[in-house]
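Q: What would this chain look like folded?
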Amino acid sequence: HLVLSQIHILAHLAEKKGITLVNNIPRNSRIYADPKLFAAVVQNLVANSIKFSERGDTVAVFTPEGQPSTVAVFDTGIGIEPERFNNIFRYEVHTSTKGSSGERGTGLGLPLCREIMEAHGGKLQVMSAPHEGCTFMAVFPDVRPRVLLVGEDGPVSSEIRELLVNDGADVESVMNGKSAMDAIFKSPPNLILADVAAVRINGTDLLNELKNDENLHRIPVIMTAESTDDEQTRRAMRYDAVE
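A: My prediction, written as structure tokens:
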């Protein structure tokens, strides 16, 4: 969906130059990344390929075989000289050149993409040769998101666990807030799901601990509750918990 939305945004540029845009990302593909930042990467890479392609060329976004955590942008355009590979990713080296139709750029798009990928623990790679097209690959680390379930075991928590595991997540369960903090300090999860009724006061204590820790306050927390009128729930919401 993310890739398709960026292709739609840039479709008018490709159509104006007579370039074919293709989305070959398989259905239900999943990459764990900040959606806004990765959308900027896709948009920059596709726009760059359009810039250096000519009428009749093709720009395609695809997942390389055997690399499910990689998104690649390929074009049949004018290509890049290998000696320029290192400089195109550097802010301090002005590498902006005119596109095939005289388009101008700032020279900042590719360095920004590299910075975003490195912030995700990934990398940005390029393969090209003059007049032989170009392929940029946004390579993410092959990781599984970690989810911490806080609360008593039961049918609902079992169903949630099954759904998360089927979506490729690693799930750990603990009974209360104290056990949750022990697990979090040992290995911070990507998401916390906490049952307000099950953890009671420990639930808001847990949120207080998280929100006041500079290394943990960004972990998203979803609280589950039977009623929004419960005082425990209202206290949790004051800590920015999502219900």
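The chain has eight helices and nine strands.
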